């Protein structure tokens, strides 16, 4: 049993010029203070206390000498020319050593800090210290310090040793036996003289009185309980669960591919080989004429009067097998490969009724190579973006480990399981799903790409005019983006805080943008954005996100400029989409736009030429303008999530429009894409439920953020946000499969029968 002594002193004198000095001398240390005890706050405000109570550094009996009496000298002095009355009381602490799984209640104040001893039981390697209080204020600090005298238990020195975190209503610190060679430590509780560090304000009664001294009495009732943390076996179970859960997706993909292969082989042996060989492309050796259902797809007009309905002489006609390579093709983005003798693209792309054959006239090899640039560029971007991020978060984690300041990182401290140098290994591990499913998606796309190449080598040239053109570059880019989202999310959760949150969202922007580009590319392969312009746009968005993090909290001018950019960008993109890229963006565009508005809306109110596109763009602009107005009025502090919401809403709007128009055109949803759509909706709904649980928030102070901390909910290892990581990875994977398989039903349909929307 460890004995501890507490010294209480009190003086009625408030004379700061002649304080009473107390010096306590022990065998291994000296402790001194003055009464009145002065604390300094913000802007050099001072607070004095006449009552001071300190716990002396305890002495533990050694096995050789056994228990012995302690000799303590207390020296009292003052330079005052008059007598000063004081009270001195020395007591022995009965409950100095904390016990496992037993709550202990006590009271502390700025001038009366408390600390207690805890010894690790024999079978416990890690414990979690939980501290709670009914009142948020006064602000307090919880510190874990090694058995060293003197103990740092005042506001100005509590940060000098050990691990510490600020606290309002709740705090939790995980402590491992390996960090304390003596297998014991002190738990120190300090009350701060002011509350601004915890998010509180300076009391209104002392505003404007910087040089005046205030004798504010601040006490706080606290309860501490120390519980054993999880064992090493739980770490192993959690890792097995994480990997096996997502490896089951690999098994499911193999089963689906095998079943599909068996079905194709049976049809081939029966002489009924389907034009779709499982890769989403045709393998028939004869052209198949598919008729468009009556009244569908924009009220199809007579093919003889449509230049887009004519069968074009593709540059690939007559190519020998094996010549479908990109290395022999030079790409010039400024050179339009559509033969001008066939028809002027300004005429084709501005027709009332457009078909896929109108927008897939360029050399397939050149277009395919153009989209492969998406893949190579995103790899380059990922390397250059990820390496500094990894270096920075390693520095953050090192600073946390060296200084012991746990206010730097916003963990869920009630479910933060350390491993090695990582303070919250569970938050990092839960991102493994993005890596595994992103790699699986790349394998699925690679399989389709290989089967497509084989089919192109053996099928008749006429089948080039069937189905959606197969370009896989954007799909590869999406797979890499999903994997990088897992890497960067893991980096962010090494030390989540206000300054590095954009690491977690940067590739989310890119994923949403690439999905929209892929959806648009499906029926507009010739006029989709190039990789350079797309990634340049993403770079602008990320720059705006960084500026929003820095200036977006209080600066009105930033929100005005951003809202104007948002609205103008929406109008410019809408114009390009409506006119299929044939509206020139130059100095004369404002005059042309005004002329169009005058002739079509004022002079005579005519029906829009492209009604479906107009409806989509009107709804899209209303959504984006609503976001701009919301941001201007409310100025949300989480600017990165605000931009991500804009991207996601636009993606969902466009996907819903695409599916509605697909069904309206009498096209079908095959079982696999239908299953993926349902799975995407269900998994996203479940994921968003866990996302909005808010276990921490860097928009608030660290102490206020800890009020939202909650215990683990899965295997005693993962919290709600980890479950969000698992489910969001699966939801993104199913979303990608929707885009990959959505138009597999069109593989038997001629392109001059497939409408564009």
The main pleated sheet reads as: 4 strands, antiparallel
Uncertain residue ranges:
274-343
Strand content: 5-15%
Major sheet strand order = 9-17-11-14
Overall average pLDDT: 81
Overall geometry: elongated
User: Rounded to an integer, what's the Rg over CA atoms?
Assistant: 35 Å
Broad structural category: alpha+beta
Number of strands: 17
- The N- and C-terminal alpha carbons lie at a distance of 80 Å
Provide a descriptive summary of the structure in words:
Mean pLDDT is 81; it is low at 274-343. Helix content is 42%, strand content 13%. It is elongated, with a radius of gyration of 35 Å. Strands 9-17-11-14 form a 4-stranded antiparallel sheet, with no helix packed on it. A 4-stranded antiparallel sheet has the order 10-15-12-13. Among the domains are: 1-61 and 71-94, no CATH class; 555-628, no CATH class. The termini are far apart. It has 15 helices and 17 strands. It is a multi-pass membrane protein. The chain crosses the membrane at residues 238-262, 374-394, 432-451, 472-495, 501-520, 532-551, 557-581, 614-633, 639-660, 672-692, 723-742. Residues 271-336 are annotated as: Disordered.
Task: List its salient traits.
SIDT1 protein, double-stranded RNA binding, four-stranded antiparallel sheet, alpha+beta, 757 residues, membrane
In brief, what are we looking at here?
By secondary structure, this protein is an alpha+beta fold.
List the helices and strands and how they pair.
Blueprint: E1 5-11, E2 20-25, E3 30-35, E4 37-40, E5 46-49, E6 51-55, E7 73-77, E8 86-92, E9 104-108, E10 114-119, E11 126-132, E12 140-145, E13 163-167, E14 170-176, E15 184-191, E16 213-214, E17 220-228, H1 232-269, H2 345-348, H3 364-403, H4 425-429, H5 432-458, H6 473-494, H7 501-523, H8 531-551, H9 556-578, H10 589-603, H11 611-634, H12 639-664, H13 671-691, H14 702-706, H15 720-741
Parallel strand pairs: 5-16
Antiparallel strand pairs: 1-6, 1-8, 2-3, 2-7, 4-5, 9-17, 10-15, 11-14, 11-17, 12-13, 12-15
Helix pairs in contact: 1-5, 3-6, 5-6, 5-15, 6-7, 6-15, 7-8, 7-12, 9-11, 11-12, 13-15
Main location: membrane
GO molecular function: double-stranded RNA binding; RNA transmembrane transporter activity
Organism: Ceuthmochares aereus
């Amino acid at each position: 049993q460890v004995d501890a002594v507490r010294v209480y002193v009190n003086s009625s004198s408030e004379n700061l010029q002649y304080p009473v000095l107390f010096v306590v001398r022990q065998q291994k240390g000296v402790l001194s203070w003055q009464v009145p005890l002065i604390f300094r706050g913000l802007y050099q405000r001072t607070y004095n206390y006449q009552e001071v109570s300190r716990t002396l550094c305890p002495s533990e009996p050694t096995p050789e000498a056994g228990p012995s009496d302690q000799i303590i000298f207390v020296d009292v002095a003052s330079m005052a020319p008059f007598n000063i009355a004081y009270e001195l009381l020395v007591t022995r602490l009965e409950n100095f050593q904390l016990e496992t799984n037993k709550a202990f209640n006590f009271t502390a104040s700025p001038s009366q800090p408390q600390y207690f001893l805890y010894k690790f039981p024999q079978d416990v390697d890690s414990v979690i210290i939980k501290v709670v209080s009914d009142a948020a204020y006064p602000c307090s600090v919880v510190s874990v310090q090694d058995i060293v005298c003197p103990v740092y238990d005042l506001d100005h020195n509590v940060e000098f040793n050990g691990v510490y975190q600020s606290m309002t209503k709740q705090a939790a610190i995980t402590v491992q036996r390996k960090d304390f060679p003596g297998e014991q430590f002190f738990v120190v509780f300090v009350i701060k003289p002011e509350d601004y560090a915890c998010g509180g304000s300076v009391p209104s009664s002392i505003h404007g009185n910087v040089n005046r001294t205030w004798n504010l009495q601040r006490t706080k009732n606290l309860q501490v309980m120390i519980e054993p943390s999880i064992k090493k076996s739980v770490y192993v179970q959690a890792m097995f669960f994480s990997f096996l859960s997502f490896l089951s997706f690999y098994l499911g993909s193999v089963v689906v591919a095998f079943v599909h292969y068996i079905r194709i082989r049976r049809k081939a042996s029966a002489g009924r080989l389907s034009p779709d060989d499982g890769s989403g492309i045709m393998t028939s050796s004869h052209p198949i004429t598919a008729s468009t259902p009556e009244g569908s797809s924009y009220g199809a007009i007579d093919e003889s009067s449509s230049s887009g309905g004519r069968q074009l002489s593709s540059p690939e006609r007559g190519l020998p097998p094996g010549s479908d390579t990109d290395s022999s093709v030079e790409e010039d983005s400024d050179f339009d490969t559509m033969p001008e003798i066939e028809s002027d693209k300004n005429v084709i792309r501005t027709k009332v009724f457009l078909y896929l054959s109108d927008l897939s006239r360029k050399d397939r090899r050149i277009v395919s190579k153009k989209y492969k640039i998406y893949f190579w560029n995103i790899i380059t971007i990922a390397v250059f973006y990820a390496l500094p991020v990894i270096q920075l978060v390693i520095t953050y984690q090192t600073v946390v480990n060296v200084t012991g300041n746990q206010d730097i990182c916003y963990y869920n401290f009630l479910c933060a399981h350390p491993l090695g140098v990582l303070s919250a290994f569970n938050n990092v591990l839960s991102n493994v799903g993005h890596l595994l499913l992103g790699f699986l998606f790349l394998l699925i796309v690679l399989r389709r790409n290989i089967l497509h190449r084989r089919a192109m080598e053996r099928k008749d040239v006429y089948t080039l005019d069937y189905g959606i053109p197969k370009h896989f570059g954007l799909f590869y880019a999406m797979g890499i983006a999903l994997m990088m989202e897992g890497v960067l999310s893991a980096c962010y959760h090494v030390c989540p805080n206000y300054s590095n949150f954009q690491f977690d969202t940067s590739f989310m922007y890119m994923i949403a943008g690439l999905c929209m580009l892929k959806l648009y590319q499906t029926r507009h392969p010739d006029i989709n954005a190039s990789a350079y312009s797309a990634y340049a746009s993403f770079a602008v968005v990320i720059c705006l996100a960084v500026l929003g993090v820095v200036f977006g909290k209080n600066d009105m001018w930033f929100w005005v400029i951003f809202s104007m950019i948002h609205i103008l960008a929406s109008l410019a993109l809408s114009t390009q989409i409506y006119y299929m890229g044939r509206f020139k963006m130059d100095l004369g565009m404002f005059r042309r736009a005004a002329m169009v508005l005058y002739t079509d809306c004022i002079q005579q109110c005519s029906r829009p030429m492209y009604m479906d596109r107009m409806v989509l763009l009107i709804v899209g602009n209303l959504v984006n303008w609503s976001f701009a107005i919301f941001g201007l009025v409310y100025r949300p502090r989480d600017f990165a999530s605000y931009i991500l919401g804009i991207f996601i809403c636009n993606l969902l709007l466009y996907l819903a429009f695409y599916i509605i128009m697909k069904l309206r055109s009498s096209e079908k949803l095959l079982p696999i894409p239908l299953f993926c759509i349902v799975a995407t909706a269900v998994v996203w709904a479940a994921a968003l439920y866990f996302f909005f649980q808010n276990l921490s928030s860097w928009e608030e102070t660290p102490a206020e953020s800890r009020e939202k901390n909650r215990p683990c909910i899965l295997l005693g290892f993962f919290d709600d946000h980890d479950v969000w990581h698992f489910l969001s990875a699966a939801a993104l994977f199913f979303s990608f499969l929707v885009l990959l398989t959505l138009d597999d039903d069109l593989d038997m349909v001629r392109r001059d029968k497939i409408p564009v929307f």
